[in-house]
Amino acid sequence: MPVTNKPIRYRQIHLDFHTSEHIPGIGAAFDPDDFVATFKAANVDSVTIFAKCHHGWSYYPSKVGAPHPNLARPDLMGDMVKALAAADIEAPIYISVQWDERNARLHPEWRVRSATKNRFEPGQLQAARHTLCLNHKAYRDELLEHAREVVRNYDTPGLFFDIVLATDCVCQQCLDSMAEHGLDPTKPEDRLTNDERVNEVFRAEMTAALHAEFPGLRIFYNCGHIHKQGRKRFAPYTHLELESLPTGGWGYDHFPASARYAATLGLDFLGQTGKFHLSRGEFGGFKHADALEYEVSADGGFGRQMHGRRPAPSQWRHQRRYLCFDCLGLCPPRQAGALSRVGKAGIAGGHPVLGIFPPRRRPQQHG
Ligand SMILES: [Zn+2]
After folding, report:
1. Please, which residues have CB within 8 angstroms of residue 122's CB and are 6 or more apart in sequence?
2. Ligand 1 center–CA 31 separation, angstroms
3. Which of 51, 77, 133, 152 is the most exposed place for a label (fewest CB within 10 A)?
């Protein structure tokens, strides 16, 4: 059962873990002590771990979905939750929504049928994500049962639902829905209206059902951006996590504007950058320390792909940056992320490199 209604924590790692069934020995080298010691050394106080990934595999003995076929530890996620909880590190849990390649194979009838040639409906032989449409109640029901199974059995403060997207879908269910609501499927604006309505139904149903059973459970739905659609759009959310990877396609101008808008929505929020130069899933890369310093100072959260049993050296540099900000007095010892703190406080914010910070608080080159 979850611990609920606690303030969000800001020294967060988002531990991406999308692992194909073709990879053997998943978690074989996992060492709970080393895992936790790495985060403690960096004063990380929250680590988002995975229940179900884009491949559709679960990392615990799921009865709703299917465990990854090559799990060396039958309950890798549970082992992570226990180890983190013992060290007072929270473990929000991730569930992939519209990207679930296992279900795309089992239920091709749930796949998006795109009106235009886009990335959400790749060819059958194409190595790509065969996106699922949320207008299928059977899939929404499965997602809810998956979420319930996770929260009933693991100590987590909340869920991070990833990939809730407007896909330009014209599957039969979407055509039927558009007819029912007087929308014209030949018009792009009407298809977008339908996409938004379908996703809104999913979010509203999910939050209502989960909060009925787990009041106060944190819930966030990620679509890679905080759309400027007003507070009503975010009613099913308990907080916001601003995915904004400057070198992963978002650019360095994205986060400041997005954070400033998020601050008007009345929800706590934290940012999420990543170490990737091009996109997520890039292994073995190193981001320059100056870039990490800039991004962590603004965003707070940090996304990386877990592969192997301990963070790569680039993350140790990240750790040093957290410590660096602590000793500069930018943040309280267990809180980093300037704009995140601004969001929590709901006041106008600054940005270290844009020079809006008071000079005395501007980060200096360090170490
Ligand atoms: Zn559809």
Report:
1. 128, 129, 130
2. 42
3. 152
CA of 144 to the centre of ligand 1 (A): 18
Q: How far from 15 is each of 8, 70, 160, CA to CA, in Å?
A: 17, 19, 12
Residue position matching structure tokens 């996620």: 77
pTM recorded for the entire structure: 0.83
In the reported structure, the alpha carbon of residue 170 is separated from the centroid of ligand 1 by a whole-number distance in angstroms of: 5
Yes or no: say if 111 and 133 are a contact pair by the CB < 8 Å rule: yes
> 6: CA distance to ligand 1 center in Å?
36
The three-state secondary structure class of 58 is strand
Share of the chain above pLDDT 70, in %: 77
Q: How many Å lie between the centroid of ligand 1 and the Cα of residue 250?
A: 27
- CA 134 to ligand 1 centroid distance, Å: 7
Whole-angstrom distance, CA of residue 340 vs CA of residue 49: 21
CA of 166 to the centre of ligand 1 (A): 10
**Residue 167 alpha carbon to ligand 1 centre in Å:** 8
Residue 345: exposure state from Cβ atoms within 10 A (0-12, 13-18, ≥19): exposed
Going from the N-terminus, what domains does the chain have, and what CATH number goes with each? 12-361 (3.20.20.80)
Separation CA 254–CA 34 (nearest Å): 35
227 CA distance to ligand 1 centroid (A)?
A: 21
pLDDT over 90, % of the chain: 60
